[in-house]
Amino acid sequence: MSLSASSAPLLADATWLAHRYDPGHDAVHFVRVPREAHRTATFLTDDHLPPGLEPLVVRRADALALTASPAPLHFIFHSAYCCSTLLARAFDRPGWAMGLKEPVLFNDLVGWKRRGGKGPDMASVLDDALTLLARPFAAGEAVIVKPSNIANGIAAPILALRPQSHAVLLYAPLRTYLASIAKKGLDGRLWVRTLLLGLLDDRLIDMGFTPRDHLGHSDLQVAAVGWLAQQALFARLVAQFGESRVRTLSSAELMRDPATTTTCLATLFGLSLDPAAAAQIVSGPAFTRHSKFGNDFAAAEREAEHSAAEQIHGDEIDKVAQWAEAVAKAAGIALDPPAPLLAGQHA
Fold it and tell me: Which of 12, 49, 241, 337 is the most exposed place for a label (fewest CB within 10 A)?
């Protein structure tokens, strides 16, 4: 349905999610997603949102004219399979913050950029998209956005457009990442090749490989190249925007001490969090239930799952990890990116 005088006030309500961007008509598609639906959806994608949502299609300029003052906006950028959905869910606390899990709006902008599409100025559209995503559900809330890692290539423009925004760059340790890919079988192995294509399109791979080299790489070598490219990107983001705005975090550190990590992350995002509230978050569903399937799934279950994958695929993981370390050394890529969030916390 299209915007009418009677429906215009709806856009002041964050329940209407800025879901898709149509560059051909310079229009934004909004869908109604109540907070509970945000909470239960794994991602804010059509596959995970309630079926049959009818979009409200609004010209971008009209949508901006109807948007109230945005909330503080911060980001969880990630390299995939590193508990990023868990972390976004931890910031769903009414009156404090709301976590948006992989809004498709960013994917549309990345796809438009990769296609070399003509039309409105991309920086202007991205700026407006950030404003539309920063509508709070309640007064005083911050909005914490976890884009898909497809959007990592526009992380620098996002942070440049929002100088008050902070970001955590979340990643899994190399061996953990490789085990995650291996245990997903064919789906995981195909996914890392899709990721590689996107990283090549975004010109984020600079390790001396030719396209022919990538054809000769095994699936886990492709996974390692993608992981290294994102580590290099994270280091550049820290160098460009500084440790006061951008910090890095491994999933291993997150799960080793979730209360301290959540507290430090809240501080990075300018949010107060007392020890009792931090303990409540850590004992809540974000840290005790599987982010994608909803079953009981705490730190012990995660560790057991990764250990089982390493036992099955250990030989391949060992060889690829050694190869990746050599590639990283030759390319000057640190396996542990700078500006760790928890620096000095366990000294």
Answer: 12
